[in-house]
Amino acid sequence: MKRAVTIMLPSGCLLEFSGGLNNVYHSTILTLVYPALKVDDGLGYLVMNKKKTVGGTSVGTHVSQADICRGLQALGLQSGDLVVTHSSLSSFGYVEGGAAAVVDALLETVGTAGTLIMPSHTGLGKYDFGAYDPSKTPVRKAIGAIPDTFWRRPGVRRGNYPPRHPWAAKGPLASPLIEYSEGHPIAAGHCLDILVAVADLGGYVLLLGCMNRNNTSMHSAQVTAFNELEDACKPKREFLRSSPKRPEDFDAVDQPLRHAGAVEITRIGDAVIQLMRSRDLFDVVKKMYISHYRTAGGNESILEDIPDPDGIRGCYAGLMQTLKRH
Ligand SMILES: CC(C)(COP(=O)(O)OP(=O)(O)OC[C@H]1O[C@@H](n2cnc3c(N)ncnc32)[C@H](O)[C@@H]1OP(=O)(O)O)[C@@H](O)C(=O)NCCC(=O)NCCS
């Protein structure tokens, strides 16, 4: 059953408690901002819809590149870090310099010793190999303006394939990680992938004004939990068919993450920013898998072995050895 309640705050913000997620233009986890409100009381999802412009003039908080750098540093992100970012530009309010300023702030924070990774996914189909040109094909709208700005930067390595789900990265670990993500057609998309590698290398996931439903590492964490606990190497697509995959299932990780002290949260402008160690996310998802997913359908699926899982694991172990020397 869908229920919705809308409240006007004194600031003029509209708070909407809603079970439906369609048409949500700008969403922020309000419990983080207004801790007195509860998300777990059966109302469903707590989102904030906020108008950013009135008559063409920005009414959001103005944010500069320096503000973003300060916010990221306050969260604990520092030079040399490896970080995967998912983002919403409009969540900040009004960013002086737009998406380019956010990209600059991220690159400045991790420095030349750090590696920044973003999804660079396109609007193409899975098998549109001929149509994809990594130097021309734009990132699709649902991935956002910040990743679409990032891959165009000099020195960014963007995957040559897959045509629908390439990644882009800049920094010392960029090339080996992108090569791995595009390399082995099975290893890249299934039981081990670039996001598992980020967890194994001590990297972070950074959510800039978006939520865990946008956190692709959740997919990899689920597959990893399955592989560890069921001791099977299972194609990711088969696993995902059988496991919770609605956006709201992914947001269910919010509270366990907070309880585990595994997520640092701040605000930059109007945006809620979350930083988590990828490894911590994987651990929390594993616990959730044991207590919930395993009984919620994960064990109903048909096991389907992939060809040569040992070869994939061997290839992955080799990659980790090389990268850990960096
Ligand atoms: C879908 C999603 C990208 C939408 O966020 P958004 O903030 O509305 O859109 P973008 O980040 O693309 O930013 C563009 C918007 O910012 C706004 N904008 C433009 N200039 C701006 C500025 N200087 N400052 C602030 N906002 C600005 C505009 O409204 C623009 O939208 P428009 O082009 O339709 O007018 C976001 O909610 C999301 O899901 N991000 C994560 C995606 C992801 O990584 N998914 C996982 C897949 S692997």
Structure description:
The chain has 326 residues and is α+β, with helices and mostly antiparallel strands. The N and C termini lie far apart (52 Å). The longest helix has 16 residues, at 278-293. The chain has two domains: 4-51, no CATH class; 59-324, no CATH class. The protein has 13 helices and 14 strands. It binds coenzyme A. Coenzyme A (COA) binds next to strand 7, strand 8 and helix 4. Coenzyme A (COA) is lined by residues 86-92, 94-95, 98, 119, 121, 142-146, 210, 214, 216.
Please supply descriptive tags for the structure shown above:
326 residues, alpha+beta, 13 helices, 37% helix, binds coenzyme A
Helix content: 25-40%
Determine the strand fraction and express it as a percent band: 15-25%
SSE topology string: EEHEEEEHEEHEHEEHHHEHHHHEEHH
Largest sheet: 7 strands, mixed
Using the alpha-carbon principal axes, give the shape.
globular
Question: How many distinct helices?
Answer: 13
The ligands bound in this entry are: coenzyme A
- Which parts are unreliable, with pLDDT below 50 for 5 consecutive residues or more? 1-5, 10-14, 17-51, 298-304
What topology, given as strand order, has the largest sheet?
Answer: 10-11-9-7-12-14-13
Kindly state the number of beta strands: 14
Secondary-structure-based class equals alpha+beta
